[in-house]
Amino acid sequence: MKYPSVRNYINGQFVQPASSRSLPVISPIDGTALSEVPMSSAADLHKAVLAAKAAFPAWSHTPIKERVQVFFRYKYLLEKNLDELAALISEENGKTIGEAIAEIEKCVELTEFACSLPQLVTGEVLEVSKGVECRTEHVPLGVVASIVPFNFPSMVPNWTMPNAIALGNCMIIKPSEKVPLSVGRLAQLLQEAGLPAGVFNVVHGDNEIVEAICDHPGIEAVSFVGSTKVAKIVYQRSTSHYKRCLALGGAKNHLLVLPDAIPGMTAQNVAASMSGCAGQRCMAASAMVAVGQVDHIIEKICDEARKIVPGKNLGAVISKASKERIERYITEAEQQGAQVLVDGRHVKVEGKENGTYVGPTVIDHVKPDMAIAKEEVFGPVISIIRSKTVDEALAIENSSPYGNAASVFTQNGGMARYIIERASAGMIGVNVGVPVPREPFSFGGWNESKFGVGDITGKSSIEFWTRLKKSTVKWNPEAGINWMS
Ligand code: NAD
């Protein structure tokens, strides 16, 4: 193994969990055994909760302007260690170094937002009757948890951790067992940045730990990012224990391409959106609805797709099982009459024969009722569905149970607005393939792409990670007593 066995991080120390169960950590790039990750038990989680609980009084009573100083230093450490952090992400997740660098750059942006929180959480105060003041303040919840997926080993933890902790909470994070290495490195950087022991803890494991997080009475709030199937389980289970929960799920994002779209720019955006991070983004373009006569744009999309080379500017998918699943979707669509214009099945990368690569794939004449048109494929594949009108295209987009993102490519502003108003998704792009809102705007989908109220990042996260304390104060006894005092 290239790295020592992964350990939990509890109370500022890397510790071996009690459980003897573990899973191998395999690099999707070439099949190298990187490490092994322990499958912790509920007893290990309990230790983390105790550590976080013990750290909470001092941390929550540290003024926020002091708390964010840790994140100013953490941001600097992310930048200082950018190359090494990016290499680790690429190794464990399979994405290209360029994509991994972009992931750390996004972590920097997320941390910058956390550093701005003192400017955003000022409360309110008003003299409501003579000498009587009412005031509201955002106060932290206590011990909170964050459960994260494999596709962004650093970015998704940084969606939740800097904001939750800067706002005064103590956090336990459960990384994906497929990519457990990056979060350990983030824990070291937080320690170096001066975060007190117990404020941030990492417990590795699988569904057993996720269930224990949902059930633990010492955890006040749970944030989850992953597939819709598990988001539903986590949302139901944690709210049944009266916890606050925000659970982000999977996606099936539609790009609507209209005949007046600029061909070159549209083709570049569609190809980049479907293939970035090997299509393993909840914001990836997965279905393209071709409205009317857009064959000239489809030709250009194929040209762009052919420039994307596995092992060079296209990373690997997470596992052999993923590769097989993606290729099965393509074959099934082909058997049902779809036309594979660019075929990414069965690719091998020289020197990385054990890597799990799928090449860029463009499939035309996909029907809306095919599995590849409806389900999340999570690979570098775009399914083109033909439609005669914009309303027919919108009906296809609206019929998806998901609702993370949608984009339209057109030069007609009125038509773009028409589509923005009618697409059933939380994040919409116009001539943008991956419409991820940048800080300070918040991230979050609709429908079965998100369960719970609010969004996970930006200003919206303040509502999730804090509650309001309302105080009514009177220091002037001479004012007497009236109906409200
Ligand atoms: P996943 O749902 O399989 O796993 C997510 C987390 O849940 C992991 O930590 C995993 O250990 C845990 N888990 C898995 N199965 C479980 C079970 N049965 N019970 C309890 N916990 C369980 O997701 P993934 O494969 O790691 O990530 C890919 C998915 O995440 C895709 O569906 C993608 O769209 C989604 N995603 C969504 C967003 C978003 O913002 N909506 C962002 C990133 C990823």
Helix content: 25-40%
Show unreliable segments: none
Radius of gyration: 24 Å
Provide the spatial order of strands within the biggest beta sheet: 14-15-16-13-12-17-18
Structural class estimated from helices and strands: alpha/beta
Give the number of DSSP strands. 20
Assembly annotation: single chain
Tell me about the largest β-sheet: 7 strands, mixed
Note the gap between the termini. 69 Å
User: Helical stretch count?
Assistant: 16
Mean pLDDT: 97
Bound molecules: nicotinamide-adenine-dinucleotide
Q: Provide the β-strand percentage band.
A: 15-25%
What is the overall silhouette? globular
Task: Provide a concise account of the structure shown.
This protein is an alpha/beta fold. It contains 16 helices and 20 strands.
Comma- or semicolon-separated keywords:
single chain, 485 residues, 20 strands, globular, binds nicotinamide-adenine-dinucleotide
Q: What do these coordinates show?
A:
- By secondary structure, the chain is α/β, with parallel strands linked by helices.
- The longest helix is centred in the first third of the chain and has 19 residues, at 42-60.
- It is built from 16 helices and 20 strands.
- The strands form 5 sheets. The protein has a 7-stranded mixed beta sheet with strand order 14-15-16-13-12-17-18, sandwiched between helices. A 6-stranded mixed beta sheet has the order 9-8-7-10-11-19, sandwiched between helices. Strands 5-6-20 form a 3-stranded antiparallel beta sheet.
- Nicotinamide-adenine-dinucleotide binds next to helix 8 and helix 9.
